[in-house]
């Protein structure tokens, strides 16, 4: 066992506890060091930089405009929805009142929130566990097994879609929210890959030291490795929140009754009823779109730094 | 000096008290315990793999050889489904649509995200506002993106054609003219480019400054530096997003389904937006041709495998891994 060559980090003549080492190690993250390095000596505004700024500003308008248009359209009366004015000529709250009466939006939002939270928490936890199993333990066949994990990333969802439906059907879960999240209890290949990369970047000595200090295998994972892995966990959480919040196909397959609809499924039913159903009430669809997009935007703003720094530090290098 | 003594001493004790057989036995016991802990951590994936991947794959392969409508017992029909696929004009159309969409969309997607990432990188650290702006559309539900497509790309009074009108261009009927439906969907898909931009930006920021400095010392200009330093250094990230986007492109569903398919939608000539997975979904869950849909799924798997394999082989020449593993 190579675990015998432990190199304990000594601080001030005293061996720090594993938890202390963990805190020190987490104290100045690679991202922060990187940030400092980048700041370096302040650069002057070169012509190249000025050009970049102008280009970004123009493109930024292109990217942000559809949102602004959508929000503005939701305050327009039915007849004006298609005009391209940014500020509504006649400002009205009627659409919001009407949407609330036409569609059980609050219920849909609640269903989606439940599914999203359950899915994101379970997939993050189980993927981290499996990733740790691959990153920390050395055993025969590990490489082959991990190869299988990567191979499942290539498998199109369509191949497993029908038998998976039959499993949930046999379990009597079609029509409930369970199939939308319960598969996540078993981890997901992409996140396992991502988190394993991150775990491999952590100093192994830290974990061996904790073992020597009497921590259990589970304790090493739960109390030391996981807290150090917070940026990567945040990325996993947010990616999964995004994926589940916007998941249409599974909702189409498994949900039957408007009372169990999630937001994408509900929105689709509004598009069918008010868009294509001969009624052409686009103002209802537009307003419902605004209501259902806003929670995601809030989540993103709250987690923005975590996500972007997390992606940067998980080293998606292949 | 004392350190040396201690080490010799402990080695001495170890040699005296533990026989090789005992040590071997202890090591084996430790490794068995190690394996047990490892399996415990891996257990969620192992269970999930068996129940939700391996078994469905086997069962789907079996179903692809049957006629199955969920209600009656699957009836074995041999390779009939696969034979039918070759003679199904709608399937061939769906395949054509999908390959065309992916072949045009992926290169555009990569070029645009690379340009955005380069701009963000050059703009320096205060560009975090723009990172957020470019990532936001990714957080919009695809159903809402489909709705936006129908409204903004509308032929008569959609915003896009209004803007084109300012430049004297008479925009096409993006949402109704079969020739322009796919180009429209491709344009719309560029809006949700955020994740790729951020992955590329992270890769750009990981290029060691040192390399740029030595390139400068060697007198390399912007173009030379880009070709010899920047691109090779970010090629793993580029390759990653090419593969991921190709696989995703071949499975396009949400936006196109929202805009062109579903209950009550008979107003559009939607053949132009009939993508492979949409047709597969219809076969499986609308017409309940589960056997045929399973065969289609394996067809898709084959296409994805071939394309990915080609990309992997081509990439060997162009992707540079630091410290080549």
What does this protein structure show overall?
- The complex is a heterodimer of chains A (318) and B (325).
- Chain A is mainly α and 318 residues long.
- In chain A, 68% of the residues lie in helices and 0% in strands.
- Chain A has 14 helices and no strands.
- Chain A has helices spanning 18-27, 30-39, 47-73, 94-102, 105-136, 142-154, 157-170, 189-200, 204-212, 217-228, 230-245, 249-254, 263-275, 282-313.
- Chain A is globular and about 70 Å long.
- Mean pLDDT of chain A is 82; it is low at 1-30.
- Chain B is mostly helical and 325 residues long.
- Chain B has helices at residues 2-17, 20-63, 80-86, 89-123, 128-135, 142-152, 159-166, 178-189, 194-205, 209-217, 222-250, 254-260, 276-286, 290-318; strands at residues 66-67, 75-76.
- Helices cover 73% and strands 1% of the residues of chain B.
- In chain B, helix 2 (20-63) crosses helix 14, helix 3 (80-86) crosses helix 14 (290-318) and helix 4 (89-123) crosses helix 13 (276-286).
- The radius of gyration of chain B is 28 Å and the shape is flat.
- The model of chain B is unreliable at 1-8 (pLDDT under 50).
- The chains are: A mainly alpha (318), B mainly alpha (325).
Summary, kept brief:
The complex is a heterodimer of chains A (318) and B (325). Chain A is mainly α and 318 residues long.
